[in-house]
Records
---
Amino acid sequence: METGNILTAFTLTLFAGLAMGIGSIFSFMGKKTNHKFLASSLGFACGVMIYVAFIEIFPEARESLVESFGEEKGLWITVLSFFSGMIFMIFTEKFCLGNHGKEEKDCCHCCNNNSLYRMGVMTAIAIAIHNFPEGIAIFTSVLKDTTLGFSVALAIAIHNIAVGIAISAPIYYATGSRLRAFSFAILSGLLEPIGAIFGYILLRNYMSETFFGVLLSIVSGIMIYIALDELLPSAQKDGEHHIATYSMILGMGVMAISLIII
């Protein structure tokens, strides 16, 4: 393996991951008092999460698990892993984030801010988990074919811009801190190059289709739960129902185009 190819693969993977920072910057364009901008940002993020989970991640997980276990067993494992991701989020909210509920009753504004912040952090965690195998996918694509790898990296970078908005918008509106919102997006994005190097060097002899299939299916469940339980309800607050819906459709459209490019 040529050192130049490895360097190119790492550079393109880093580029795709850091694109989330661009999305983060876009999320700062509206004023914190602009509820319509917040509704549109969260609706857009919801569309991104739902489309990526159902159109990209879940089918990829199903394909890997069917290949490993056969049609019927593979589908069962995919579905069970998907709902395991949702159950994981339910228990996480109940036992790890449950104390917020008591504290938030005293102040509506505080309640809304805590909810938005929690939403952004949960989104960042889910995307970070997803970015780990995604980084390996970019890295290996470049090693196989530089031209193909560049196209894959560019397409993923485009959709990472949208994902950066999904992470940063709720955190920025909850805390008012651009630095904190930007940091969460960048740290999540850095899981792509880290995942690429870590996976290639340390786990290349142990990773399997089964491992990635189960992981990706769980992540898709987590993303759908966040979109439906956190992003969409928050986007529809303050009577901005149609703005949230239209923005959600726009988010799906942006993701559809970026995936077609791949």
---
Amino acid sequence: MKKFLMMLAFASVSVAGMAQSETPELKHSVATNSFWSNWFIQANLAGTAFYNSSETPLNLDKSPLKGFRNNLGLSVAIGKWFTPGIGLRSKVNGFWGRTVWGDDKEVNANKYWQFNEDVMFNLSNMICGYNPNRVWNFIPYIGGGISRNMSYDSYAMGLQFGLLNEFRLSRKFALNLDLAFSGNEPDFDGDPRTSGTDADRPSLKAKDRTFSLEVGLTYNLGKASWNKVPDVDAINALHQSQLDALNAQLADANAENDRLNDLIKNHKCPEAKTVTVKEVAAAPVSVFFNIGKSKIASRKDLQNVKALTEAAKDSKFVVTGYADSKTGSASFNQKLSQKRADTVADELVKMGVSRDKIEVVAKGGVADLTPISYNRRATVEIK
């Protein structure tokens, strides 16, 4: 048992060191998911050390590595994250324990189980922002529940707090390293001794206590990530800049129309008539995408594209795809910008534009616009 606990401690230090070297990713806000999203189950192997509320007069070694104190066990849990930072977990653990009568581990052996309901706080997401690719998540928790010592047919209430370290293995799996302390009513371990002890005092020594170190796996059920909130401010700001550009071009067109009308009015030709000059604004129309996606974020953007195609029915169009250069590799962004351009070109065809009148261009990752999220788009303009 001593070797097992030392190996677990060494593994925790090694994996934590690797977690510190994770590559930073872009943080983003998330929307609340449905009730059936973000559930998880856990299964762990546990090493637990036991401390008796009535053992003070025995002057026993306090080390959790002593065989008369510790034993192996198992734990299983099911839980749900309601936000990236707050979740609930129902957990059962046991099943081989110790009642510390002395330093003989065989005499001390018992069987027990504990059920706890924990409130969990993912401080990594709460402090640093949600990141689905984060290697290490730091999750303190606190909870309470009931315990039963099956060997002595006794029940007790208790409180526990701990620290769950989750190390991401894939989208579905994570490695657990769970450190926990629990304090239970003095009759938890079935020891009836109270004379000459601290059992009547409101202190930790008056409780039956356990320290646990657990290693296992978390499996994420169903949808294991969070929906991203579209960058509405950025999209609105860019749309406003496009409207300003269109208004400026319209003002120029009206000025040119007035100039031509003045020329016609002052011309000596009697059959001269007022002519209205129409121009189609040449500003590109943008269609936006979420980070890493080639599916159009809001189909409302296609209304502007539809208006442009109707105003220039016989024109040729250029569709240009972009990705932001701050995320993803150059090769990934090139492919992503091509997919975005192809997606918008397909929409033009659905609007009645002939495929041979559409030129598709992929610009890859760029940083032309600020903030960087403005560059996750495809543009449509008249050639």
